[in-house]
Amino acid sequence: MEPQLGWVWLSQKERRTAELALAEFGPDGTRDELGFGVIHFGYADRFFPGTSVQHTKLRYIWFVCWSYLELQQRFGGEAFQKSELDRIEDRTGHKLLRHYGNDDGNGIIGGRVLRVGRSPVVKPSAVYWNAMRTWGIVRPLSVGRDAPGRGELHSRWPDLTGKHGRPEVDPDQAKSIFSDPPPVPSRWRNQSEPLTFDLDKENDEAGRIIRAWAVPRDALGRRSLLYRLAERGGATPTSITSPSVLSLCDEDEKVSLRRAACAGSLAAISRAIHTALVQRMKDASADANTTMRRWLDDAVQQHGEQAVKLDRLGLLVDVPEASKLIPLIEATQAWLSKGAGEISVLEDVYRSREEAQKPGRALLARSGGDRRANWWPREPVPLSYRWDRITGFLDQLGAR
What are the φ and ψ backbone dihedral angles of 217, each rounded to 5 degrees? Predict the structure, then answer.
């Protein structure tokens, strides 16, 4: 049975909390026992605001809009049952399955659950709503206010979607929930009509997304790197520090992107060290530890040079929440500078960091034997700051 685990968030803070809570069970299998997630969020939210590791396909943004517009047409001015929205979203999933078939990896949210006739817990509207708010697709309720979360929209639905005043002098339609959505497809409600993720060129669905990405601004009033990459067009860059990416940035942004890459490398090495330390405590035999040390040596070879270059003070300027990681980062860089030898010298600082990150649940705790017994290692990877999602989005836009 496929696990059904999901959430509905109403704010950026709630989304961050939820993703951090689920980090050790993320899609790439990466655990966050040491707390590097704060660095991930600090850089990912700065350069790619609104994005999430939960995202798959950009056209889901318009599917969500069309789902609510259908609700507004049917239940404008009156409350609706949540099951009505669930039915529309499940219908959308089945329409996608009609086109893409039953194989995995096609980006259909809850596809496995839909294929066996059940309704997924995680709905596309929950996954994409924060992005739609961040990108200005969901309209604020009034001037100077943030766009509503789904919960607020649902609770105020009758007031927000009904007509007001006297019809004879105020014949206008109810207030629009969304800003500049493309027209609803003519066969949107037809269960048997296949649906695709291809962005409709005739209705400029890709262009509307790019214009929405122009909405978020940083403290200096600059548009996000996400928007600049989309506006640039051309081939999708290979990495976050590719020359084609850096050419779009101001000098302070270039420094931060390079620093983010260094932090990502150090995170990979730190996770490899943690994995090796936990394995040693679980089973001290040479056979059990050979693979862990090989993983660590590979991480050092691939990422060591970049990891030692991480500017700790600069990191704190970029991500103040990373202050809790500084003792561990400093110790790890010193260990690398001395030749990356025996890891036992790092055990105390790593245990202290994990016990602070996960009180009562640390794998390195001396009393953590039961937790270690149920733990299995996974090869560590660097922080990527959702770059795989960003490149996927750019590829989808490139097909416009």
Answer: -130, 150
